[in-house]
Amino acid sequence: MQPDLRTFLKTLKKDHPDQLLTITAETAVEYSSTAVALELEKQGRYPALLFERLAGSEVRMAANLFASRAVIAAGLGIQAAQFSKHFGRCLDNLVPSRKVESGPVHEQVFEGDQINLGNLPVPLHFLDDAGPYITAGMIASRDPDSGVGNLAYARLQIKGPRRMGVSLHSRQHLWDHHRRAAQAGKDLPVAVVIGAHPAVMLAAAAKMGIGEDEYDLAGALLGQPLEVCQARTVDVDVPAHAEIVIEGHILANTEETEGPFGEYTGYTTGRSTNNVLEVTAITMRSDAIFVDIVPGNSSDHLTLGRAAKEAWVHKLMQEALPFYQELYYPSSGTHFHCYIQIDKSAEGQAKQAAQLVMGLDHYIKLAVIVDKDIDPSDEAAVLWAMATRMQADSDVDILSNLMCNRLDPSSHDGVGAKMIIDATELLNATARRVVLPEEAERLAKDMLSKE
Fold first, then answer.
1. pLDDT in tens, 65-94
2. What is the pLDDT of residue 81?
3. Are 171 and 136 in contact (CB under 8 A)?
4. Is the C or the N end of the chain the one with fewer CB within 10 Å?
């Protein structure tokens, strides 16, 4: 049986009922997913959401699927602490997709005059957004030269029944596919996949080589080949068990204003590549489920982007630096801060680790390096290390005029400064942390567990 979004939601409901909140009351499409997810986040709660009744729509909506690392891990059948290692192993052991004739995604097909994006429950998310946005759209394309498939996220603004604005601001493989197709004077055939098993959605967020197909990573994460079938009107493969697919072309030499939109920085931004997608077909399952990634600097948005990237960077850091241990992207830094743990044996290793991580991920503008006794996922512990192991005149380096992410509102047209903070102890340090006997810690835990 091919795992899909529905089997994942059923597993959550059965095995992790506290991680799925089903909302049965009729709910407005506009703003609801954003408002509910962000209110839950204020309460320290991060369940996946399923809106059963959306006003004016027969389609249900799932959201907040990636707000919790525990939910992500549950989708893969592992513990949250195993995620990076498991993901790294899957990157090394891809499972090619399996082509099938068709699948549930083609249970309903709309072409020609039947196409109407307005029939989908696409939300408004924030007051300053330019319009309704598809945020969980995974755009499937093929390399114009090699034919290798690619799956990547891009924000999609609804502009009409058959027209969407697209921003390829990440300038990664999809952007390069479009660039090369446009240079040849051709539109880029694409299919926007909405709603799939979390393994597919994680694969779409992953860092992979331009000659590798994210569908093959999805298969590795699923533990079986992902079943794909050809789209109806474009030469692109789509997951056969996806909920909704929008087929069309990103136009070669056409630009229109797209945005503004509330991005992961927590700011509204009009930065965009201003591309246009013309729709040629919409296919969907019966009783389809629309998926929304809560945008802005929500846990849903940030954790989906970070989890796959962390695992990829972790794998490469581990391969390159024998003294490297772990890393963590804190929510407080969106995608711009990274805390790195090393087992230091020589001075200079901290800065070497920081420079490598910034080379691997150009989004990072602050890297803090800590010793092996500091948990990089514990921000208070990282700040304590900075307070007690760092001197600003010797342990801070500023790197100027480097490529950064263009959505950073403080950057200058994609160029900015980066900071390295070495919060590791000197090897000849004499100060020692206060410690308790292990037996005393154990007794205290036992005592408090009985209260």
1. 999 988 899 889 899 889 999 999 999 999
2. 87
3. no
4. C
Residue appearing with tokens 């090699």? 146
* String of DSSP letters for 72-128: HHHHHTS-GGGHHHHHHHHHHS----EE-S--GGGSEEEEGGG--GGGS-PPP-STT
| pLDDT over 80 (residue 257) | yes
Q: What are the residues whose beta carbons fall under 8 Å from the beta carbon of 185, sequence distance 6 or more?
A: 252, 253
Residue 120 CB partners (closer than 8 Å, separation 6+): 57, 59, 134, 244, 282, 290
Q: How far apart are CA 451 and CA 347, in angstroms?
A: 46
Domain boundaries, given as residue ranges, for the chain: 80-294, 321-422
Question: How high is the mean pLDDT of the chain?
Answer: 95
**257 near 264, Cβ under 8 Å?**
no
At residue 71, the 3 state secondary structure works out as helix
- Please calculate the CA angle 119-125-129 and round it to the nearest 5 degrees: 100
Enclosing H/E stretch for 22: strand 20-23
Query: What are the pLDDT digits (tens) for 259-314?
Result: 999 999 999 998 899 999 999 999 999 999 999 999 999 999 999 988 999 999 99
Q: 375-397: b or e for each residue (b if 16 or more CB lie within 10 Å)?
A: ebeebeebeebbeebbeeeebee
Whether 450 shows a pLDDT value over 90: the answer reads: no
Q: What is the rounded average pLDDT of the residues 392-421?
A: 92
Banded model confidence at residue 366, pLDDT cuts 50, 70, 90: very high
Domain 80-294 and domain 321-422, same fold? Reply is no
Is 362 in a helix, a strand, or coil? coil
Which of 293, 408, 395, 309 has its CA nearest to residue 360?
A: 309
Task: Report how far residue 248's alpha carbon sits from residue 250's, in angstroms, rounded to the nearest whole number.
Answer: 7
* Architecture of the domain delimited by 321-422: 3-Layer(aba) Sandwich (3.40)
- Top CATH class of 80-294 equals mainly beta
